[in-house]
Amino acid sequence: GLGNVDNTSDVNKPISTATQQALNNKLDKGGYTGNAQDLKNDIDNIQIGGRNYLLNSGNVLSTTRFISIPTHYLQNLVGKEVVFSFDLMIKSTGVLREIKMYAYQDSGVSIENTGFFVPTTKGIYERFNLKTKIKDFGVIQGLTNGEIGFYDYYGENDYSIKNVKIELGNKATDWTPAPEDKQDRLQDVTG
Predict the structure, then answer these.
(1) How far apart are CA 12 and CA 7, in angstroms?
(2) Tens digit of each residue's pLDDT (9 = 90 or more) over 105-159
(3) So what's the pLDDT on residue 182?
(4) Which has the closest alpha carbon to 68: 54, 83, 53, 82?
(5) Do 97 and 157 form a contact (C-beta atoms < 8 A)?
(6) CB–CB of 145/109 below 8 Å?
(7) How does the average pLDDT of the chain come out, rounded?
């Protein structure tokens, strides 16, 4: 009868070793709010390009306000989804505040979206990225034929960028030089 019923709450009942091991190996959703199908779709939709389309992208560019990177030669990427990534450092004499990255003068071939990036520590490079598309704004007479601009709206600031990269897809990868840069260096060495 009822005298043999275990009235221990479920949370306090023992479980098998196999069940405990399965629970220990369970994936923690963390902050993910989707279901299993959403997660599968997210994973299936990751697109990794890898190839850097920006020339001379390993150079360190420093300023106290504005930097631009030529992009006019990216006509073959217009309309394509890309990731633009770069290392940004606010120097020890600078101020930790946002640096804007945008299509300079909205003229020529550049990025479609604007991003604002704030490093957390002075004196070290931090990697940032922006998912966007390449857009042909049309060249406006007297303006650029395509550049990405970096700008501190709030005033003078001592900062540098390096290892800039534009690659196809929606997932940033580590910086690598454009294949054309490697070829140029090889020609310099071989004469």
Answers:
(1) 10
(2) 999 999 999 999 999 999 999 999 999 999 999 999 999 999 999 999 999 999 9
(3) 74
(4) 54
(5) yes
(6) yes
(7) 87
Q: Supply the DSSP symbol for 176.
A: -
C-beta atoms surrounding 17 within 10 Å: 7
Q: How confident is the model at residue 174 (pLDDT cuts 50, 70, 90)?
A: very high
How far is CA 189 from each of CA 126, 181, 182, rounded to the nearest angstrom?
32, 13, 11
Q: Which two tokens stand for residue 66?
A: 């504005």
Instruction: Pick the closest to residue 81 from 13, 130, 150, 149 (CA basis).
Output: 130
Structure tokens at 133: 């598309």
User: What does the pLDDT read at residue 186?
Assistant: 47
Q: How far apart are CA 88 and CA 110, in angstroms?
A: 19
Give the amino acid at 8.
T
How many Cβ atoms from other residues are within 10 Å of residue 91's Cβ?
14
Q: Which two tokens stand for residue 146?
A: 């395509």
Tokens of 91: 């120097």
